[in-house]
Amino acid sequence: MKLAVTGKGGVGKSTIVAVMARILSQSGQKVLAVDADPDMNLAGILGVPESVRITPIIELKELIAQRTGTEVGKPAPFFTMNPKVDDIPDTYTIEYEGIKLMTMGTVRGGGAGCACPENAFLKQLISHLVITRDEWVLLDMEAGIEHLGRGTAIGVDEMIIVVEASRSSMDTASRVKNLASQIGIKKVSLIGNRIRSEAEKEFIRKGSNSVPIHGFIDYSDQMLRINLGEASAVTIDGEPVDQVRSILDKILGNN
To answer: Which CATH number goes with the domain that contains 195?
Structure first.
């Protein structure tokens, strides 16, 4: 399956993506985790040592220029909108604990939706990942989901919005749902994270606007240890892992 996971900054979506990748990998699945969030912290959450260099795709300036028919540092009013990208995943990923990891990076300047060679390259690459790759692809997206174009959306099985019990988080979820609908993503769902009480679950249920909720992940010391850098998504155990596993089962229709 190809899942795009998004949500307001700070709700813990990257941690959920990392735990999902860990569970799938340990069950024998082929998994590619794609860090398409500007914060680019998925590697750290997975526990990849800082000594391991992961080249963000956006830093491949010479390659992007070559593939898009442009020149580095020069204005590009015309460029190739569908550059060759099929060799990128196997060349610019690392593997850690059985999980393949790719970091996209962020186009700086020009506005979020700029029609520039870098954005064209990233969109073409994500489109390739979600449409043609024969493996689980977990996209850790920013809330704006700017890299998902209409063509890419065809290949996304589901958009999962991670929320917490706050008005701002639910407002972001509503905006993301509308964006997803506009680009043709038909299946959108929620995961409630950092839950401390039944009242918080009810708050999310009432604010969901009938969007299906796959489950809730409780606030826990295990997840806190990841945030503090004392543990990683592949070393924690106990209830949070069980809750994410249950959510994956629901996504797969096993519950």
So the answer is: 3.40.50.300
Sign of CA dihedral 114, 116, 122, 126: positive
Question: Which stretches of the chain are DSSP H helices?
Answer: 13-26, 42-46, 61-68, 88-91, 117-132, 150-153, 167-182, 198-207, 221-227, 239-251
Residue with tokens 């909108």: 81
Answer yes or no: is pLDDT of 157 > 70.
Answer: yes
**Tokens describing residue 51:** 């000594």
Tell me the C-alpha distance between 172 and 148, whole Å.
Answer: 17
Total domains in the chain come to 1
CB-side neighbour CA atoms (13 Å) of 12: 27
Q: Average pLDDT in the 75-79 region? A: 87
Per-chain mean pLDDT for the chain: 90
Q: Which of 167, 154, 88 is nearest to 121 (CA)?
A: 88
What's the average model confidence in pLDDT over 235-250?
A: 95
**Encoding tokens for residue 199?**
């009242």
**Pairing status of strand 99-103 against strand 94-96:** antiparallel
| Cα maximum dimension of the chain | 56
pLDDT digits (tens, 9 = 90+) for 177-190: 988 888 888 899 99
Range of the domain at 18: 2-251
Q: Is the pLDDT of residue 108 over 60?
A: no
**Model pTM?**
0.92
